[in-house]
Amino acid sequence: xxxxxxxxxxxxxxxxxxxxxxxxxxxxxxxxxxxxxxxxxxxxxxxxxxxxxxxxxxxxxxxxxxxxxxxxxxxxxxxxxxxxxxxxxxxxxxxxxxxxxxxxxxxxxxxxxxxxxxxxxxxxxxxxxxxxxxxxxxxxxxxxxxxxxxxxxxxxxxxxxxxxxxxxxxxxxxxxxxxxxxxxxxxxxxxxxxxxxxxxxxxxxxxxxxxxxxx
Length: 215
Hints:
33% of the residues lie in helices and 18% in strands. It is α/β, with parallel strands linked by helices. The chain has one domain (6-208): Rossmann fold (3-Layer(aba) Sandwich), CATH 3.40.50. Helix 3 (72-86) crosses helix 4 (99-111). The relative contact order is 0.15.
């Protein structure tokens, strides 16, 4: 696979505490509003943030034509290629929004990364709560942070309570958040508060990981 275009947000000063690579969700590019907000906020927390796009999104950028995501095999291969392209890091964390985080979770153990952060994990398709995507999460060995809106239609707090997940996974629920972490006005919470909590949790998770070279 040829070199994959990336975006890099460096911390404003000093050595980064970790490098975190983030993949986009199924319908939005690496420079979507959500990805931009998260990347800039994490960089301000002394993280080096790398973003990339899967082949179908790269093609959409060229042709302006919307197409479905690539096959799972292609998505996983792309993730592994990006990790190889970046090279060994003292602390390398991977993850992303929705589909991007899900695919990262499928290759995290194989890639031997130091940590995994999933933002809005798609535990099941919308409206199909019995079509679960959790089998691989039962045996996951990579230290993992999942940030989930309490009322996410792809896996709410109530849904997840019935799942069997690896003890390596820490779940943080964002109050009244939807799949993009946005709460209802009636909740008394704001999107800014939920996003801020997500960034703070991610930064703390990355700082607390053990810094060792990848084998």
